[in-house]
């Protein structure tokens, strides 16, 4: 006789794609703010940046040499002045004359071309000394014919005036900062007073972080049981890896260092957990990330606290709704997503501030916490930061060796990218994939998206993978050729 099927679980297992859709549907880009260029790295433009003026703003020389009238060349010309970068010559060049010019300097009026000094012969008087070959002469013989525009950059040839040089939604890196600076950034398209050298970008989220678990010891801090930070941990105690790891992951994803609110280690107690959520709301956190306490044990209280079902919620003044409580994924099955708010009311009985925080209650196993953070928290942060496409980037790669599939859940297998040709690069898999082995995350460039089993994904077959590492540091260097 086959045993009866287990009763349906309160939280059905959501496919991962649906879980990402749910969290993204609850997150909004944060309101725009104006910041100086110097702090724009990693932020996302809320408005287009329009060049305040053409670049170059004047016809400029591309070479050190002589500004000439093209119709005079070849021929002998009097040098009547000099136009240098930062010290332009404003008087006109007549026929038969030319001006010494340096790279980047404005072309004087009347001139329409530049001849590099290497293509000119100096005409020296008896009393001229010519120690410095680069110094201007009083007269030169231009050896070649010239055409108008030769060795010059026309006004606006790099950037026309009024052109959009950076589009809203652009992630700002060092080169975008350079482009914005060159454009003067004064004419940023927004309705408000113009401010020099500022950019209009989306705000950055505030993220509150807690590790939950009676067994946890804050690294460098005494556990509640131990008397001194210098004492060795007692039996059953575990160093808290998740909080330092996820604080760094949040900063790597674009949260400001000062916008990570450390809620510490919280005990497996509904009242303590509810107070922790209340503290995060009072700190105005947009996102609350916890780890641990979301599975099936008798000390796993987070789901009841986040759904507002625990009596402790009334005392702490919080209410919440759990949007999903399990996801069909390995590792990370108990991943829980909720929205919480304060239940304080004003004198009219309305919600005091209406602030709602998104809560990601990640599983406690460090790998499960790390993988779920990448898969759902990172896209949420990107959406709040204003990314045009907040989802993780997906690539195709070829499996180096057979991988056994999990019979129950699609698996996110941590892997290192390497180039296909023989090279001394690390192997594809980061090794044993159990969710407590955090070393399987170190050096991982991608999460291979392996389907649910049965069976095996064959070595040599193509698999999709989500990028979680910095590919600039990946072992995908081609041999020099
Ligand atoms: N009967 C069932 N038991 C479990 C199930 C299930 O479906 N039925 N799911 C398993 C899965 S999958 C996972 S993942 C874990 C997740 O459990 P929790 O989220 O409740 O996490 P904890 O029990 O609190 O901790 C799990 C593990 O990780 C260690 N841990 C926790 N926090 C940290 C930290 N900050 N730093 C380092 N290590 C940490 C903790 O000591 C445990 O070893 O549940 C399974 N159980
Ligand atoms: O899903 Mo749990 O994260 O297997 O270890």
Automatic annotation (TrEMBL):
Q: Which CDD domains match?
A: MoeA (cd00887)
**GO terms of molecular function:** ATP binding; metal ion binding; molybdopterin adenylyltransferase activity; molybdopterin molybdotransferase activity
Source taxon at top rank: Eukaryota
GO cellular component assignments: cytosol
Question: What cofactor requirement does the entry state?
Answer: Mg(2+)
Pfam families for this protein: MoCF_biosynth, MoeA_C, MoeA_N
Domain MoaB/Mog: start-end pairs: 208-383
Q: List the EC numbers from the record.
A: 2.10.1.1, 2.7.7.75
List the catalysed reactions.
adenylyl-molybdopterin + molybdate = Mo-molybdopterin + AMP + H(+); molybdopterin + ATP + H(+) = adenylyl-molybdopterin + diphosphate
Q: What is any one GO biological process for this UniProt entry?
A: Mo-molybdopterin cofactor biosynthetic process
Q: Kind of enzyme, top EC level?
A: transferase
Biological pathway: Cofactor biosynthesis; molybdopterin biosynthesis
- This protein's UniProt keywords: Magnesium, Metal-binding, Molybdenum, Molybdenum cofactor biosynthesis, Transferase
Q: Which family does it belong to?
A: In the N-terminal section; belongs to the MoaB/Mog family.
| Function, in words | Catalyzes two steps in the biosynthesis of the molybdenum cofactor. In the first step, molybdopterin is adenylated. Subsequently, molybdate is inserted into adenylated molybdopterin and AMP is released.
| Name this protein carries in UniProt | Molybdopterin biosynthesis protein CNX1
Q: Give the source species.
A: Micromonas pusilla (strain CCMP1545) (Picoplanktonic green alga)
């Amino acid at each position: 006789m086959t045993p009866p099927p287990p009763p349906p679980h309160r939280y059905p297992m959501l496919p991962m794609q649906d879980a990402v859709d749910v969290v993204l549907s609850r997150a909004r880009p944060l309101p725009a703010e104006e910041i100086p260029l110097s702090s724009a790295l990693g932020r996302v433009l809320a408005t287009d940046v329009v060049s305040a003026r053409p670049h170059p703003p004047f016809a400029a020389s591309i070479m050190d040499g002589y500004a000439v009238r093209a119709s005079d060349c070849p021929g002998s010309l009097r040098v009547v002045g000099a136009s240098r970068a930062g010290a332009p010559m404003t008087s006109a060049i007549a026929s038969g004359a030319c001006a010494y010019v340096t790279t980047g300097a404005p072309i004087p009026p009347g001139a329409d071309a530049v001849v590099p000094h290497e293509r000119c012969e100096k005409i020296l008087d008896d009393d001229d000394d010519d120690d410095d070959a680069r110094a201007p002469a009083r007269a030169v013989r231009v050896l070649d014919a010239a055409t108008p525009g030769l060795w010059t950059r026309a006004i606006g040839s790099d950037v026309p005036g009024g052109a959009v040089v950076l589009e809203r939604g652009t992630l700002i890196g060092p080169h975008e900062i350079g482009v914005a600076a060159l454009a003067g950034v004064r004419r940023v398209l927004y309705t408000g007073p113009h401010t020099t050298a500022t950019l209009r970008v989306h705000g950055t989220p505030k993220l509150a972080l807690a590790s939950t678990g009676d067994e946890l010891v804050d690294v460098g801090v005494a556990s509640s049981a131990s008397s001194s930070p210098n004492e060795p941990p007692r039996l059953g105690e575990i160093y808290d890896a998740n909080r330092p790891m996820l604080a760094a992951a949040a900063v790597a994803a674009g949260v400001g260092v000062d916008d990570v609110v450390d809620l510490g280690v919280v005990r497996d107690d509904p009242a303590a957990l509810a107070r922790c959520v209340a503290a995060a709301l009072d700190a105005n956190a947009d996102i609350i990330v916890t780890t641990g306490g979301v599975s099936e044990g008798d000390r796993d209280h987070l789901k009841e606290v986040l759904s507002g079902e625990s009596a402790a919620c009334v005392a702490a003044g919080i209410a919440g709704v759990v949007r999903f409580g399990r996801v069909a994924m390995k590792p990370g099955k108990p991943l829980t997503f909720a929205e919480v708010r304060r239940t304080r009311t004003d004198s009219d009985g309305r919600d005091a501030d209406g602030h709602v925080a998104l809560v990601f209650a990640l599983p406690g196993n460090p790998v499960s916490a790390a993988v779920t953070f990448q898969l759902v928290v990172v896209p949420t942060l990107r959406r709040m930061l204003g990314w045009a496409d907040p989802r993780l980037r997906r690539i195709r790669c070829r499996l180096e060796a057979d991988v056994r599939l999990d019979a129950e859940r699609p698996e996110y297998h941590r892997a290192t990218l390497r180039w296909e040709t023989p090279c001394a690069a690390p192997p594809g898999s980061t090794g044993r994939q159990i969710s407590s082995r955090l070393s399987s995350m170190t050096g991982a460039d991608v999460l291979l998206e392996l389907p649910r089993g049965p069976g095996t994904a064959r070595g040599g077959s193509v698999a999709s993978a989500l990028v979680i590492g910095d590919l600039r540091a990946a072992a995908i260097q081609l041999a020099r050729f």
